[in-house]
């Protein structure tokens, strides 16, 4: 009978092993029902006859047996599951902090440890020196005890949460262990009904990995700073060494062009001398730009502030570049309103900004195009705008602008000469004046460059406190999504700061 009952239970166990208690209970139920299986049909036969009473009796007893068996097995299984759940719950710690990382401490208002828990409790308690019923400050390195006391005092004064980084003294130092353990203590105030501090729940986390990462970042920063300084010195030294021979080349080529010591024999010689003069002048301008950049980068570019007539300065720049624009077939115009007045700035730096921007606009504008110089005054700010109808800049290339020795590389403007220093120098000079720099452009349509400077020179005086600007200058954040045209997302305020 037990084997038959076991086979029946297996069919309905759904992969669950058959419980011996279920077989015993069903066996007892079956033995109890067997007398009724004989008695009930016999009684019904006397009442209804053999043909009717016998099948009804067997069916009734069988149905009652099956219902009783179902109820009995279900009750046993529900009870078993309940017992299993209670057993599992009994093994789970009631404190939820046991599943949280680190060490959880309960401190009283004076900072004495009253309880400890947490997932990493064993690791921390093996490190700490019997923390229970002792002041936690005794575990902290003497240099960081003041920070812990201040954090506890902030909680007493009303703060709800205070986070502080501390060093704990190792009780025993191994061969491969440091003397201190760096931890982060996140302290939460527990207050009584009247608002006074009743206790503190603190979570302690090991931040050794974070401290190692900080040290590595600091080391990399020092290496980058040293390489940066070496590069700046190299640029300054090379620029100074090249200017002397270049000045000689330009001077002697001017003498040859003027034919002061004899006539040149033919036009080809005159052409070659002119090319030497133009190439030397171009190389000298690049060297001067590199020197100015190295000065800005090192914080040694001194602004000589003076009152500059803005309209007159812009007009002079227009005249200087008019021949270049005429040779290129580009129309150069200026639209300067009356009443621009004077601006307190370095006149040479201001002209350099305008000349570089206008020169770039002419260089990247094809014949038949136009370059415009505009200016406007709004309160204490002056905005200079250089616009062109040139090749423009693709949106994804905007983040590359302003990096030294970098040009926007594509099939169209690869043919244009230049060192890629112009915008970097403009950005640096604008930063020294405490101004902002902005570019708006669309590929194939043109570019607008906006330079805004404080009219009273206040930005330059503020920048002069450190006299250093960020290099390489940035016109837009790397990775900025510029899907509609090449417009920088916001004014790039070039605040003077240590590079």
Automatic annotation (TrEMBL):
From which residue to which does any coiled coil extend?
A: none
SMART domains linked to this entry = HATPase_c, HisKA
SUPFAM superfamilies for the chain: ATPase domain of HSP90 chaperone/DNA topoisomerase II/histidine kinase, Homodimeric domain of signal transducing histidine kinase
Q: Where is this region: Disordered?
A: 477-499
Top enzyme class, one word, equals transferase
According to the record, the segments passing through the membrane are 29-50, 56-76
Q: What's the superkingdom here?
A: Bacteria
Q: Which residues form the Histidine kinase domain?
A: 237-457
Residue stretches of biased makeup (Basic and acidic residues): 489-499
Which key words tag this protein in UniProt?
Kinase, Membrane, Phosphoprotein, Transferase, Transmembrane, Transmembrane helix, Two-component regulatory system
Q: Spell out the Gene3D superfamilies in the cross-references.
A: 1.10.287.130, Histidine kinase-like ATPase, C-terminal domain
Q: Does the keyword NAD apply?
A: no
Q: Which Pfam families match?
A: HATPase_c, HisKA
Task: Identify the InterPro entries for this entry.
Answer: HATPase_C_sf, HATPase_dom, His_kinase_dom, HisK_dim/P_dom, HisK_dim/P_sf, Sensor_HK_Regulatory, Sig_transdc_His_kin-like_C
What PANTHER family does the annotation carry?
A: HISTIDINE KINASE, TWO-COMPONENT HISTIDINE KINASE
Q: What is this protein called?
A: histidine kinase
Q: Origin organism of this chain? A: Agrobacterium albertimagni AOL15
């Amino acid at each position: 009978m037990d084997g038959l009952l076991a086979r029946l239970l297996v069919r309905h166990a759904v992969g669950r092993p058959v419980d011996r208690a279920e077989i015993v209970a069903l066996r007892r139920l079956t033995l109890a029902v067997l007398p009724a299986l004989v008695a009930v049909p016999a009684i019904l036969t006397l009442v209804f006859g053999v043909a009717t009473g016998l099948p009804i009796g067997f069916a009734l007893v069988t149905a009652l047996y099956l219902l009783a068996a179902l109820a009995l097995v279900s009750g046993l299984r529900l009870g078993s599951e309940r017992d299993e759940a209670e057993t599992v719950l009994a093994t789970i710690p009631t404190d939820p902090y046991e599943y949280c990382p680190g060490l959880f401490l309960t401190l009283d208002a004076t900072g004495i440890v009253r309880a400890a828990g947490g997932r990493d409790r064993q690791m921390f308690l093996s490190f700490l020196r019997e923390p229970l019923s002792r002041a936690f400050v005794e575990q902290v390195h003497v240099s960081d005890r003041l920070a812990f006391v201040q954090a506890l005092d902030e909680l007493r004064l009303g703060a709800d949460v205070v986070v502080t980084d501390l060093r704990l003294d190792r009780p025993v130092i191994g061969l491969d262990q440091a003397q201190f353990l760096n931890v982060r203590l996140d302290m939460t105030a527990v207050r009584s009904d009247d608002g006074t501090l009743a206790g503190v729940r603190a979570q302690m986390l090991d931040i050794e990995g974070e401290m190692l990462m900080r040290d590595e970042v600091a080391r990399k920063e020092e290496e980058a700073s040293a390489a940066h300084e070496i590069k700046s010195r190299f640029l300054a030294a090379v620029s100074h060494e090249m200017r002397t021979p270049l000045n000689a080349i330009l001077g002697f080529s001017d003498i040859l062009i003027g034919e002061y010591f004899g006539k040149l024999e033919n036009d080809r010689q005159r052409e070659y001398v002119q090319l030497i003069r133009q190439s030397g002048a171009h190389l000298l301008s690049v060297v001067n730009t590199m020197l100015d950049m190295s000065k800005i980068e090192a914080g040694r570019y001194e602004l000589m502030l003076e009152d500059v007539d803005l309209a007159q300065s812009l007009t002079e720049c227009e005249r200087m570049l008019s021949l270049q624009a005429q040779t290129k077939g580009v129309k150069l115009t200026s639209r300067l309103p009356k009443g621009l007045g004077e601006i307190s700035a370095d006149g040479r730096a201001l002209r350099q900004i305008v000349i570089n921007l206008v020169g770039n606009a002419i260089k990247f504008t094809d014949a038949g195009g136009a370059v415009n110089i505009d200016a406007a005054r709004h309160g204490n700010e002056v905005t200079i705008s250089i616009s062109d109808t040139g090749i423009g800049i693709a949106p994804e290339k905007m983040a590359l602008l302003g990096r030294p020795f970098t040009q926007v590389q594509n099939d169209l403007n690869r043919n244009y000469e230049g060192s890629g220093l112009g915008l970097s120098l403009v950005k640096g000079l604008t930063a020294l004046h405490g101004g902002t720099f902005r570019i708006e452009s669309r590929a194939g349509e043109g570019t607008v460059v906006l330079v805004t400077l404080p009219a009273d020179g206040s930005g330059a005086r503020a920048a002069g406190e450190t006299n250093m600007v960020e290099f390489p200058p940035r016109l837009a954040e790397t990775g900025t999504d510029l899907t509609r045209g090449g417009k920088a997302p916001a004014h790039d305020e070039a605040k003077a700061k240590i590079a």
